[in-house]
Amino acid sequence: MAEVINGGCHCGNITLCFNISSSFDELPIRACQCSFCRKHNVRATADPKGELEVYIKDKSKLSKYRFGLGITDFLVCKECGIYVAAVMEDPENGKLLATCVVNALDVSDKNVKAPAAAHYEEETSTDRLQRRRKRWMRANFIG
After folding, report:
1. Torsion of CA 102, 106, 109, 112, to 10 degrees
2. In the chain, which end has fewer C-beta atoms inside a 10 angstrom radius, N or C?
3. Number of helices (H) and strands (E), helices first, in the chain?
4. pLDDT tens-digit profile of 67-95?
5. What is the CATH number of domain 3-142?
6. How remote is the C-alpha of 59 from its chain's centroid?
7. How high is the pLDDT of residue 109?
8. pTM for the predicted model, two decimal places
9. Which mean pLDDT values do the consecutive 10-residue runs of the chain (143 residues) have?
10. Where are the domains of the chain?
11. 33: CB partners within 8 A, 6+ apart
């Protein structure tokens, strides 16, 4: 991997290790327009050639919130309330796909380009899975 960016929630219960294949400034930044993401002011990114490692200290303090199509876990720390990433299992191979919340990464705002508004409300579960296979990255839970 070309670069590793760390991050996580505010209290430290969830730690992220974002392994990217190129430079962070080359990655797309998206602002999903669903009500959940708008309320969290989410800027999200993923590297299809990269990987997101998610470390959990206390699993009882991890919330896996689901809504909409019910195929994605939105990872939120129950202790400090920070939303850090979204993950879903690929039903064909059981592997996890993820996107990372930029606000949860240890990067300076001056290094984050403006996000592109993203509208996904018309997608079916199949459409969403196909898009995520192309744009999201593999993920692993550790701990």
Report:
1. -50
2. C
3. 2, 11
4. 988 899 999 999 999 999 999 999 999 99
5. 2.170.150.70
6. 18
7. 85
8. 0.93
9. 91 98 93 92 96 97 93 96 96 96 93 90 90 96 85
10. 3-142
11. 117, 118, 119, 120, 121
User: Are 7 and 105 within 8 A, CB to CB?
Assistant: yes
3 state SS for 21-87: CCCHHHCCCEEECCHHHHHCCCCEECCCCCEEEEEECCHHHEEEECCCCCCCEEEEECCCCCEEEEE
Instruction: Please tell me the total number of residues recorded for the chain in this structure.
Output: 143
Q: Which residue has the tokens 């920070």?
A: 82
CB 104 within 8 A of CB 85: yes
How far apart CA 42 and CA 134 sit, in angstroms, is 20
